[in-house]
Design brief:
CATH class of the largest domain: Alpha Beta
Shape: globular
Number of domains: 3
CATH superfamily of the largest domain: Aldehyde oxidase/xanthine dehydrogenase, molybdopterin binding domain
Radius of gyration: 28 Å
CATH architecture of the largest domain: 2-Layer Sandwich
Number of helices: 16
Largest sheet: 7 strands, mixed
Number of strands: 29
Length: about 775
Amino acid sequence: MSNEAATAQAAQAAEAAPAPDPLPHGIGASLPPADARAKTEGTFPYAADLWAEGLLWAAVLRSPHPHARILSVDTTHAREMPGVRAVVTHEDVPGSPLHGRGKADRPVFASEVVRHHGEPIAAVAADHPDTARMAAAAVIVEYEVLDPVTDPEQAFEAEPLHPDGNLIRHIPLHHGDPEAAGEIVVEGLYRIGRQDPAPIGAEAGLAVPRPDGGVELYLASTDPHADRDAAAAAFGLEPERVKVVVTGVPGATADREDQGFQLPLGLLALRTGCPVKLTATREESFLGHVHRHPTLLRYRHHADAEGRLVKVEAQILLDAGAYADTSSQALAAAVAFACGPYVVPNAFIEGWAVRTNNPPSGHVRGEGAMQVCAAYEAQMDKIAKKLGLDPAEVRLRNALATGDVLPTGQTVTCPAPVAELLQAVRDFPLPPLPKDTPEDEWLLPGGPEGAGEPGAVRRGVGYGVGMVHMLGAEGADEVSTATVKVHDGVATVLCAAVETGQGFTTLARQIVQETLGVDEVHVAPVDTDQPPAGAGCRGRHTWVSGGAVERAAKMVRTQLLQPLAHKFGMSTELLQITDGKITSYDGVLSTTVTEALDGKELWATAQCRPHPTEPLNEAGQGDAFVGMAFCAIRAVVDVDIELGSVRVVELAVAQDVGRVLNPAQLTARIEAGVTQGVGIALTENLRTPRGIVRHPDLTGYALPTALDAPDIRIVRLVEERDVVAPFGAKSVSAVPVVTSPAAVASAVRAATGRPVNRLPIRPQAAVVTERG
């Protein structure tokens, strides 16, 4: 065959071949994360990879006691060690000695009293990490060990552990008639354990002193402006002289960075005049950052003979640990959602958050809402059992809907398709039963060679229905700012919203692609030179920061279209941008975005601020929340009733999402949230006997692995747009975390007939002494 013939044949084949699929583009597409390849190939630069010329290494001395009086701190031996460049204690803090996310009540370094195991006492900078650790160990601290208060119920009567007292907040919620009573009454006492957020990478950071006497902190921060302000206050500097640069966030399911870790780092850099790096061990990470609030809950539900709720009474006690942190916000969520997504005409809830000598508690996905969900769903199971009704039916008869009123007096104005979600999971086909053959033995609880006899295995089906609030609450000023620039056909987004794995950078690219028809969109790195965007939690960045990006992009769109609209004598509303082309409604105008830009640089800055909320009043009443999200989960479990081992077979999930912005990303977020909830239900419990963190490592703290993850079936996504939210979307990560532990516990109850009133579920709670 001649070259000409071969070329012609190749050309014909090319014409006949189907066109390649277009790349994902805009809102609604499964656009892959920009950093996905770097993270999977191991080339993504995490905070632990940071380096600087003349680097020093830091180490922190932490208290071995949960409660003690500090009699003296002698740093002489540490300072005299070769290679040690600085040792700092509370005496070396030039500014505010206190810090804290929700309330500044936590010392940078303990001075007179140690209030929890692992509290920082001193920090060292040296020319080698081993030298730094040895020098920290050489600091001599003389303690008078005190009896720790570790039972939150004892905190009410104990001597004050803090100058602010032991009670952080008390919320009494009164709604309806206190004399109301139902035909049946069920009661329960429930305990929720301490969950650690267990970030993929332990805390790490680099502090670099600046020529103006300030400092730059390179951190995996999730709230850089709050961290900057706390650092500036501790360092005695103006905020403008402290810069936080966000780098290498490996993911976050809570407060990613412990401020008590950041502040010693910056102090050492200022003291030495050299860059200082600190990489925490996993043990230090467990001791330093906050955990989910352990909670004690007492409930009494009144219902009529049809299973409809008449009154809910509850007492909720949150163990805040040594310091307040975000316990006030967690308590507000717990009290407000104590009755769950159900219509309750009468509710009387008492909630307390108290200080103890346990490790500090703080923000973890679904804080407050997760603990009460486990309790009120257990109560719904008890009502169903007492009336001989199907557990799903009891929930359906009480399901909350748009227009109903919460016990806080707030009317639910957002979509609340609770009944639709419940029906979807109830009607989804159940998984097949395992076969009692050796080949399928791995399907039984306990895994290969870990299960008992197949005849001891019971299958249970249970339900969980949960709700969370989105954004901040009780008057929190939720605002974010974003800038969108377009030049030479490339768009750049500047927004201080940190990408923690929730997909904000991907969403920002999609918004700009959709609005401006520009394919290439870059999201700039985050630092505190940009306007604040707030913390990366409770779906904030999808709503507030995404809304700011959308508004800025629309302003640029107007700048782009105005000259064309003026030229053709029409308004910009009559022009549309699709697939990089600008066309008019009548087809007269047709050009590309690149041609319309013609080398111009366009930019705009915009803010997004949701409608205001108000604090709960002295009776627990008020419009405290911007919006809410709901989820229903049906759990199927197999339980070995002799060994107490539990295998989660399947979790069927239905969730209201408002609008699906990125299908692949949304699915991954739901599956991750459900799996995290399975850990809460079965394995995750940071044990702290007498205030001492026991086994602070990933061997002693049992996280669910890929082998523990059940089949997760997303059976329904209700896209009923929330009209007050940008794009109508709702947050999706927290509510499956809240709901799945309750569903798993419900299924274990169904399998065993046992009450299951504690999370995580201990093996003895699932053992049945006599086979039914």
